[in-house]
Amino acid sequence: MKKFVIEDDFWTLFPSARIGVVVCYGIDNTIKDKEKYKEMISNSEKEALKHLKNAEFSSNEVIKVWREAFQKFKTKKGARSSIEALPS
Questions:
Q1: What is the pLDDT of residues 44-76, one digit of tens each?
Q2: Residue 29: inside a domain
C-alpha cells in the first residue's frame, strides 16, 4: 500500500478519531504449532463472548457502537457493518 487516504467527510463525522497505520516487512505468518494457535483462538472466543450478553447479535453494546458509526456513512440500503457481517 503506497497511499492511505482519509476523506474530509470522515473527519466531519468523527472529529476526534485517531487513526494508526502499521506497516510490517519480513513477516512469516505460517503456522508452526497448530495446537498453540487452537488454544489461542479458543481463549479469544471465550473472551469475546463475555462482551456479547444479548442473544440478538446487533443488540450487544459493543456491536451497537460500530453500527451507529457505520450508519453515519452513505451505504446501500440493508448493508451491515463489517463486525455484523463477520458471524454470517
A1: 999 888 877 777 777 777 778 877 777 777 777
A2: yes
Q: Is residue 88 part of a domain?
A: no
Q: How far is CA 62 from CA 18, 75, 79, in A?
A: 18, 21, 18
Count of structural domains, the chain: 1
Task: Please report how many Cα atoms fall inside a 13 Å half-sphere around the Cα of residue 77, on the Cβ side.
Answer: 0
Assigned domain for 2 exists: no
Please give the sequence-ordered ranges of beta strands (E in DSSP) within the chain, or none if there are none.
none
**Per the domain annotation, does 23 fall within a domain?**
yes
Q: What single-letter amino acid sits at 55?
A: A
Nearest Cα to 6, choosing from 78, 73, 79, 83? 73
Burial (CB count <10 Å: 0-12, 13-18, 19+), residue 66 = middle
Domain limits for position 21: 8-79
